[in-house]
Amino acid sequence: MDVLENLIQTFTAESSRFFSNSTALSIFNETYKAVMVQILEEKKGTGKNPIERVTDFVKESVKEPVSRNEVRAVSSWLLYSGIIGYCDLYNNGDVTDVVSNRRAYFMDNGIANHITGY
Hints:
Blueprint: H1 2-16, H2 24-41, H3 50-61, H4 68-81, E1 84-90, E2 98-106, H5 109-116
Antiparallel strand pairs: 1-2
């Protein structure tokens, strides 16, 4: 767990240099948690996409003003870096009725395990 914590902290510190806003570190930390919360709380039939749910969580958690674009930039970076991924939804198994990027998930179970605290 210490190794995972060090990896996450190093990745976050290195990545925050690419964002001009000083709140990037807070947004990064809260985005990790927000992805986990949306995984655990999503109910069937919710119309929000993962970015909307993550943004709502981050805005409530960070004490400074946070824009949707900042959260989107962090989420895109996490996606590009292979930390999170998105999966699609086939409505009722119909391959012609696809909802893209329906859910976010962690690509590495170790990181997900660390975020939950277990």
